[in-house]
């Protein structure tokens, strides 16, 4: 009996956006009298940080500081339509909608500034720190807040924009399967290292190291969070989780967390990653979706590592100690 | 069964509640006192999202009959949070992005606070042991372990930089 | 967008951070309303049964009982979530009618003054059920004589007249005939629960002729529009508020608590809370489907995959919810990120008497990736290549036609594998280091 180590890899792609399209997201942006901007959505933040990254995208497009943007979601009386948060679609779809809305709102803001400065709108620029100015004439500068206030009280105008993004619906040819099932594809390659105890069949995952290509990272810490959390979930799917421990028999299904197995903080592998940015043609600032795919490549990487360590190829998930011990038994002469 | 009056200390002040027998502390906090920072993830002691401190010890409030806290000192996340700013454990969770959906966070913060009160410089093994009853489905735990180490440094007056 | 970016690309603090660490973030079920009632569900104890009768007499005598709702109370009781995007037929029942198709299926909703009273009344509802034979395996469900789960006579979702989603490119059988190796594998996965820390739930509140619904749905308009259909009320009488979700992972795309809670609020004129218990979340809420995936690959002696045949079965459980969509997504991705000129994919959405399945993180693709990437190692071993080399050799490039006939225009598998090799210190050959995802000379399919 021994502890055997092995390494396995897997390489995957993953589609961004709702399969086949036809899934609109909309956004409204308006300025308040104090010069902050409100982004109104009905999209949902699942914890991945949608509110935060949408605020960043809006600030970038508007040319104002991040803390000048408030993201207000999700209320169907106020927020325009959104298909929902799933299919790694939210940052891509909502981000594009917010860019469109922010471009329109920014133009309304520049129009007021141009009128006030008696300049052409092409000459007006935002410095990204809360000021509007006539290009090359720093003396003719005014805080966004002042222009926003002026728009409402002096000119009687709204500073607002509407945005929508929808990938047109693609039909599937029922005979050939010809279709357009994604907006873009993100990629990952994961290498896992495991140690298998041949006495107990238990697997210790020593490390999960990955490269991800995600188009562009709006918020690298949040991307890192998806990768770390996804690596854990992938490991959990590979080795622990199921609601049918004797599948396909439905018996002994877990009722609570004491019966539903997942790895805890004492089972954590070393998790490392590198993130490549190769902007997509159609995502906001080149974004691709990262939310879902991070649990995918760790699973086969771990299963391949177990084979490398033991010579036992397991083709059914989860890879329980029982399956490994039966596999080891079958290999004995 | 007749209701009874139970008195305990909550966040430094005495509270009195009228409860039916076997009502849990979790139910009293959430449903009678409106203290909804204490979460409700399973009511089976299986997830830790309802963790509060009773006389400084972390406990699953969903399993604790209110009669058992009579005369004792209960600390919830509401009472941990300072009037201004954040407790160092809370700040460390912010700095380390130690949550995604946030549902486990109140219990994690309370547990971490109790751990650091007992062991100001826990190693990863001690942190892992302490966290064993509190589940997180989003982060993979690593950012939470990092946050606790970060908070440990901050509370002992050194290493206040995020671990990340 | 060539100007340097100011805010995009920076790790700014999460806007919800302080709310989360102080517990001030309000989740759907953190709210309370005066006069709020509690809804609990009477569920089938059997996997498959005919419903002969429901006796509410004892339940109605429980102190605090307010009312019961059965199928007859639901205006449009048979629905399908994806009817919003044209998916047919309507197949799931808000409350069971004459048959229950999985253990845990909702039959009667009990509304009471307290949770305890609702639970006590649930326990006192008497069901008269005739147990029927049940099926739990995807391939057993397709055999002649298998118990039929659906109301239309077979156990598959029908895709435009086909029992599976098909993808066809090239001539797979001809390529198998000229291949040097045939590599086959069968891959299985068991169902997996989303297990969000916050269970599925909502509170429906009557407000001046309208209904405000506080919910943890992942998709507010999916929930609102389906509630509108099920209750046959105009959408403008519904106001859904959400946006804070204590873990979703796909499980909260189902529309499962809002319609019945809103109906209960309509019938009682009072706020109604319906929040799943942990055991309901585990045993009743959707799971990730179990999958069985057969792969057959034709490979040349030097390791090129020239044909791939995929036959996949997803166990949808008793109702399909979002799973038909998953099979289409699966079919679009089931050949993997590789350039394979001959591909045949049959992807079946199969009904069984298991708890329904639905969207989960990586929907339709996670188990495809598992099967494909274990299979790639099998192929590597067969032809005597290492795992890296087999993947570099077959990696797709921009301009390659994918099996669904869209040309790849954003392939970066090669660059991603190069980065991973550098990260882990795996030494690539000079040729592998020099590769890129740029279009092949001569375009597709000349370079293969």
Main sheet summary of chain B: 5 strands, mixed
Question: In percent terms, what proportion of residues of chain A is strand?
Answer: 15-25%
CATH class of the largest domain in chain B: Alpha Beta
Largest interface: A-C, 118 and 118 residues
Word description of this protein:
The complex is a heterotrimer of chains A (333), B (164) and C (448). Chain A is an alpha+beta fold and 333 residues long. Chain A has two domains: 3-16 and 182-331, Aldehyde Oxidoreductase, domain 4, CATH 3.30.365; 25-165, Aldehyde Oxidoreductase, domain 4 (2-Layer Sandwich), CATH 3.30.365.10. Chain A contains six helices and twelve strands. In chain A, the strands form three sheets. A four-stranded mixed sheet of chain A has the order 1-9-10-11. A four-stranded mixed sheet of chain A has the order 4-3-2-8. Chain A has a three-stranded antiparallel sheet with strand order 5-6-7. In chain A, α4 links the parallel β10 (203-213) and β11 (270-276). The relative contact order of chain A is 0.19. With 164 residues, chain B is of the alpha+beta class. In chain B, strands 2-1-5-3-4 form a five-stranded mixed sheet, sandwiched between helices. In chain B, α3 crosses α6. Chain C is α+β, with helices and mostly antiparallel strands and 448 residues long. In chain C, the strands form five sheets. A seven-stranded mixed sheet of chain C has the order 3-7-1-15-12-13-14, sandwiched between helices. A five-stranded mixed sheet of chain C has the order 9-19-18-17-10. The longest helix of chain C is centred in the C-terminal third of the chain and has 18 residues, at 366-383. In chain C, 60% of the residues are buried. The model of chain C has no long low-confidence stretch (mean pLDDT 96). β12 (316-317) of chain A pairs parallel with β10 of chain C.
């Amino acid at each position: 009996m021994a502890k055997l180590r092995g390494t396995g890899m897997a390489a995957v792609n993953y589609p961004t956006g709702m399969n086949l399209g036809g899934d609109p997201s909309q956004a409204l942006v308006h300025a308040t009298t104090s010069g902050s901007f409100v982004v109104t959505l009905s999209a949902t933040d699942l914890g991945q940080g949608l509110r935060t990254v949408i605020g960043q995208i809006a600030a970038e497009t508007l040319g104002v500081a991040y803390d000048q943007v408030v993201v207000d979601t999700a209320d169907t009386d106020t927020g325009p339509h959104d298909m929902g948060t799933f299919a790694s679609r939210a940052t891509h779809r909502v981000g594009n909608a917010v860019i469109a809305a922010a471009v329109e709102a920014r133009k309304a803001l520049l129009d007021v500034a141009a009128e006030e400065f008696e300049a052409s709108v092409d000459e007006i620029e935002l410095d990204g720190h809360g000021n509007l100015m006539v290009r090359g004439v720093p003396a003719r500068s005014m805080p966004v807040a002042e222009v926003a206030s002026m728009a409402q009280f002096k000119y009687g105008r709204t500073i607002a924009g509407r945005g929508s993004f929808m990938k047109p619906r693609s039909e599937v040819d029922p005979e050939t399967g010809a279709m357009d099932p994604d907006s873009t594809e993100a990629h990952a390659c994961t290498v896992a290292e495991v140690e298998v105890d041949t006495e107990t069949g238990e697997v210790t995952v020593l490390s999960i190291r990955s490269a991800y290509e995600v188009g562009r990272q709006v918020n690298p810490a949040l991307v890192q969070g998806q990768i770390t959390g996804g690596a854990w979930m992938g490991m959990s799917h590979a080795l622990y989780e199921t609601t049918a421990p004797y599948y396909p028999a439905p018996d002994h299904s877990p009722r609570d967390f004491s019966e539903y197995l997942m790895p805890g903080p004492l089972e954590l592998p070393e998790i490392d990653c590198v993130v490549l940015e190769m902007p997509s043609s159609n995502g906001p600032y080149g974004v691709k979706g990262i939310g879902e795919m991070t649990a995918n490549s760790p699973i086969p990487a771990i299963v391949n590592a177990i084979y490398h360590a033991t010579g036992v190829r397991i083709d059914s998930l989860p890879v329980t100690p029982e399956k490994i011990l039966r596999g080891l038994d079958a290999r004995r002469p | 069964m007749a209701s009874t009056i139970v008195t305990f200390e909550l966040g430094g002040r005495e509270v009195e509640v009228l409860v039916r027998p076997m009502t849990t502390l979790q139910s009293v906090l959430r449903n009678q006192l409106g203290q909804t920072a204490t979460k409700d993830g399973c009511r089976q002691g299986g997830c830790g999202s309802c963790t509060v401190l009773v006389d400084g010890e972390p406990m699953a409030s969903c399993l604790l009959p209110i009669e058992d806290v009579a005369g004792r000192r209960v600390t919830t996340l509401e009472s941990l949070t300072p009037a201004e700013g954040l407790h160092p454990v809370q700040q460390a969770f912010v700095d380390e992005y130690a949550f995604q959906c946030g549902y486990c966070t109140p219990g994690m913060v309370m547990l971490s606070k109790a751990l650091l009160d007992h062991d100001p410089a826990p190693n990863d093994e001690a942190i892992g042991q302490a966290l064993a009853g509190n589940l997180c489905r989003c982060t993979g735990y690593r950012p939470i372990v990092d946050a606790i180490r970060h908070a440990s440094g901050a509370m002992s007056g050194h290493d206040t930089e995020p671990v990340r | 967008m060539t100007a340097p970016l100011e805010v995009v690309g920076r790790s700014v603090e999460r806007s919800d951070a302080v709310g989360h660490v102080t517990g001030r973030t309000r989740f759907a079920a953190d709210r309370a309303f005066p006069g709020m009632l509690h809804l609990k569900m009477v569920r089938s104890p059997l996997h498959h049964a005919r419903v002969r009768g429901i006796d509410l007499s004892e339940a109605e005598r429980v102190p605090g009982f307010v009312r019961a709702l059965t199928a007859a109370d639901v205006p449009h009781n048979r629905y399908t979530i994806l009817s919003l995007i044209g998916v047919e037929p309507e197949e799931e029942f808000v409350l069971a009618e004459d048959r229950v198709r999985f253990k845990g299926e909702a039959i009667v909703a009990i509304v009471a003054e307290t949770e305890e009273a609702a639970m006590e009344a649930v326990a006192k509802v008497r069901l008269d059920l005739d147990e029927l034979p049940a099926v739990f395996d995807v391939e057993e469900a397709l055999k002649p004589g298998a118990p039929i789960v659906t109301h239309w006579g077979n156990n598959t979702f029908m895709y435009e007249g086909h029992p599976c989603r098909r993808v066809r490119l090239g001539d797979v059988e001809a390529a198998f005939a000229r291949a040097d190796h045939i590599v086959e594998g069968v891959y299985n996965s068991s169902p997996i629960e989303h297990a969000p820390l916050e269970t599925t739930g909502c509170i429906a509140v009557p407000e001046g002729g309208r209904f405000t619904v506080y919910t943890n749905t992942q998709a507010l308009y999916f929930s609102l529009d389906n509630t509108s259909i099920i209750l046959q009320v105009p959408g403008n009488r519904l106001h859904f508020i959400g946006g804070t979700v204590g873990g979703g992972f796909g499980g909260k795309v189902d529309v499962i608590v809002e319609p019945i809670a809103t109906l209960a609020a309509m019938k009682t004129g009072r706020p109604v809370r319906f929040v799943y218990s942990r055991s309901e979340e585990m045993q009743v809420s959707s799971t990730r489907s179990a999958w069985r995936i057969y792969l057959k690959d034709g490979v040349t002696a030097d390791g090129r995959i020239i044909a791939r045949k995929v036959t996949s079965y997803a166990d949808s459980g008793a109702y399909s919810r979002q799973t038909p969509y998953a099979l289409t997504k699966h079919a679009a991705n089931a050949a993997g990120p590789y350039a394979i000129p001959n591909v045949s994919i049959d992807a079946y959405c199969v009904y069984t008497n298991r708890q329904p399945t639905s969207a989960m993180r990586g929907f339709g693709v996670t188990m495809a990736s598992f099967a494909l990437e274990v299979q790639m190692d099998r192929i590597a071993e067969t032809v005597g290549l290492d795992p890296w080399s087999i993947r570099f050799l077959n990696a797709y490039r921009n301009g390659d036609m994918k099996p669904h006939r869209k040309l790849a225009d954003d392939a970066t598998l090669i660059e991603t594998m190069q980065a991973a090799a550098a990260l882990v210190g795996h030494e690539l050959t000079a040729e592998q280091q020099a590769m890129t995802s740029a279009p092949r000379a001569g375009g597709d399919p000349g370079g293969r």
